Amino acid sequence: MNDRTRLAISVRDLYVDYEIVEQRRSAILDRVVRRRGTGHRVVRAVKGVTFDIHEGEAVALVGTNGSGKSTLAASIAGLLRPTSGEVLVSDVPRLLGVGSALMPGSTGWTNIRIGCLALGMPGDEIEERLSEIADFTELGEALDRPMRTYSSGMRARLHFAIATAVKPRILIIDEALTVGDAGFKAKSAARIEGLVADAGTLILVSHSPGEIRRQCSRALWLDKGMLRDDGPPNKVLSRYEKHVAGAEPPQSVAAPMASSTDPASPTTPRDTATAP
Q1: In which region does residue 31 sit, left (phi positive, over 0), alpha (psi from -120 to 50) or beta (all else)?
Q2: First-to-last CA distance in the chain?
Q3: Quick one: which H or E segment has residue 194?
Q4: Which of 137, 220, 235, 256 has the highest CB neighbour number within 10 Å of its CB?
């Protein structure tokens, strides 16, 4: 069977809510003195999103800040439990985000070892590949220093090199390729292309149209937590850019029908929740 006919990710009617605690003093005043308010409010970050991604696809998530892209990515990775709906995956997704921390007080070398162990790499393989991973970072003698002395770009290089040291079946990247100079971006892009070519599945959260067109064959546009468009990057980006410029009102795309009997469906449930 062709890899692209097999599902890697299936998202069905997904809702993800956040509870935000209001300012403590005013919340107490509302509840006790004015006898109104609850001291918190609920923000619905993802609203009824449904889509499928097949093995070997490279898919971009596009949208303005606060549109729900990172929330959706974290939910697919199993880091956020859905309020309702479900996410099914064929393998364990790995989320590579620039903000993910390793151990700031430890050296770059130590963080490479710890990070690779966390990814399940055997100790002897880590030692065999230590120099290769270190060379990819281009950090040189900085690897002897604690990571807390690194700039954000240096930390991103280290994290990227570690997270891509093994070949995941499903890789989710949240803005990781937007950090660093042009040379490192090109090298990182080449590594991602290699992972996808190896029948891996890529989800890229990005604000960079050039990166999306270069890396992805499909784009999903999220707006206020809802799926507005799904298709080739040029088509979706054109609609999205017109919307941002105020030239086109958003319209939700029709959700595909779920099929519990589809033999190509992913088999691993991920953070399934049922509506109350």
Answers
A1: alpha
A2: 39
A3: helix 182-197
A4: 220
pLDDT tens across the length of the chain (276 residues): 455 578 999 999 999 998 776 555 555 555 555 555 555 678 889 999 999 999 989 999 999 999 999 999 999 999 899 999 999 999 989 887 655 557 899 999 999 998 888 878 899 999 999 999 999 999 999 999 999 999 988 988 898 898 888 888 898 988 766 566 778 888 888 888 887 777 689 999 988 898 899 889 999 999 999 999 999 999 999 999 999 988 666 666 655 544 433 545 565 545 444 333
Q: Cα–Cα distance between 130 and 121 in angstroms, integer? A: 11
Per DSSP, 37 falls in state -
Distance in angstroms (rounded) separating the CA atoms of residues 40 and 46:
19
Spacing of C-alpha 103 from chain mean position: 21
Q: Where are the beta strands (DSSP E) in 63-169?
A: 84-89, 93-97
Q: Which amino acid is at 170?
A: I
- Token pair recorded at residue 139: 């950090």
What are the boundaries of each domain within the chain?
3-92+168-273, 101-167
3-state secondary structure of 44: strand
Q: How far apart are CA 263 and CA 1, in angstroms?
A: 12
**8 Å CB contact between 93 and 53:** no
d(CA 118, CA 95): 13
Against a cut of 0.85, is the pTM above it? no
Architecture of domain 3-92+168-273: 3-Layer(aba) Sandwich (3.40)
